[in-house]
Amino acid sequence: MIFTILGGGFGLYGYLPALIRCGHTVMLPERYRATLEQRSELKNFLKSVQWRASEDVIRDAADAMVISRRPADQTNWLRQFAATARATTIILEKPLGASPASALELLDLLAGTGKTYRVAYTFRFLPWARDLAAAVASNTPDPIDIVWKFRAHHYLHEKYTWKRRVSEGGGALRFFGIHLIGLLAELGYREVRESQCAASAPDECEKWSARFSSPGLRDCRILVDSNSSETAFRIGSTAGTSQIFGQGSPFPGAPRPDGLDNRVEVLESLCKSLSTETVPAPSWYAPSIALWEQAELVSQRDYSPRT
Questions:
Q1: Phi-psi label, residue 249: left if phi above 0, alpha if psi -120 to 50, beta otherwise
Q2: Residues whose CB falls within 8 Å of the CB of residue 250, separated by 6 or more in sequence, listed in order
Q3: What is the pLDDT at residue 207?
């Protein structure tokens, strides 16, 4: 397939290497050339790209596309071009929309086009996800705990970007926690028993905690703290019956020798799923949005200063 990429950030340093390593042709507008030339780990991909004058030209030539833009831009593009674009395959970033309602609208829109699409819920491709699936299905009564702590780039560098604004699809729940919601939806969770967001400013969610349940599965408790002095990703149980995974990040921690982003490998798996999973889209996408909506409805927002 001939892919194009809409988005000059993670689209280039994440998806571009993944697509080329999977054997796909990539067509890009000329304005992205300088970005590749300035990044040492991407220079080797320059010769593999087919360059065109503009995105408008590419839209009528590409078989497939990656949309790696903020939720508002992704929403606007899909509303305008999803039905008419030549591409029959689309990979989209998460969250699909800035809110559960807009995400469901876009999911319905995509389903109506008849195109094949994937949303970048990439935790499912990590080795620990298989161990988590086995653990939650076991007959052990104590819940599974998933703890994810880090200091997001926008807090570390005091940047007021959309990734920290809840109304634009940012925050610990909508931007980071959505990874885990997607995975839990695929594992069969359908109920949110508890959910709480905490932040020190309006329209932000620095820390999110929740408890998920479903018949036949152990309860799963989640804590995502995106403004923490600690860096950790742990999966286990307080009672010690299940110790599944623990390191600084959910993604591979060791730097790659080729200098590429550590998430390229899971993006390769996402791209390969277009051929290995012979369905237009996984059936758990809609339940994942319903689970997200529940989490927000249940959530008790606390904007008091952090302690």
A1: beta
A2: 123, 126, 128, 148, 179, 233
A3: 97
Pairing between β-strand 207-214 and β-strand 2-6 as defined by DSSP bridges? unpaired
For domain 2-119, give the CATH number: 3.40.50.720
Q: DSSP H helical segments within the chain, as ranges?
A: 10, 16-21, 33-38, 55-59, 71-81, 100-113, 127-136, 153-156, 171, 178-187, 264-276, 285-298
DSSP string, 150-200: EE-HHHHTT---GGG-GGGT-HIIIIIIHHHHHHHHHHT--EEEEEEEE-S
The stretch 80-90 carries a mean pLDDT of 89
Tell me the pLDDT tens digit for each residue of 144-180. Answer: 999 999 999 999 999 999 999 999 999 999 999 999 9
Q: What is the pLDDT of residue 253?
A: 81
Backbone Cα Rg of the chain: 19
CA-angle at 259, arms to 258 and 263, nearest 5°: 100
Quick one: which of 166, 39, 149, 27 has its CA closest to 95? Answer: 166
Instruction: Count helices and strands (H / E) in the chain.
Output: 12, 13
Contacts of 119 (CB under 8 A, 6+ apart): 91, 92, 93, 94, 96, 182, 285
Looking at the DSSP bridge assignments, the partners of residue 6 are 67
Q: Does domain 123-253+281-303 have CATH number 3.40.50.720?
A: no
Domain positions in the chain are 2-119, 123-253+281-303
Q: Token pair of 130, please?
A: 């298989």
Check residue 306 and give its pLDDT: 54
Within 10 angstroms of residue 251's Cβ, the number of other Cβ atoms is 16
22 residue type, one letter: C
Q: State mean pLDDT over 191-214.
A: 96
Between residues 82 and 242, the one the model is more confident about: 82
Model pTM above 0.85? yes
Q: Confidence band (pLDDT; 50, 70, 90) for 101?
A: very high
Q: Provide the token pair at 49.
A: 């790209």
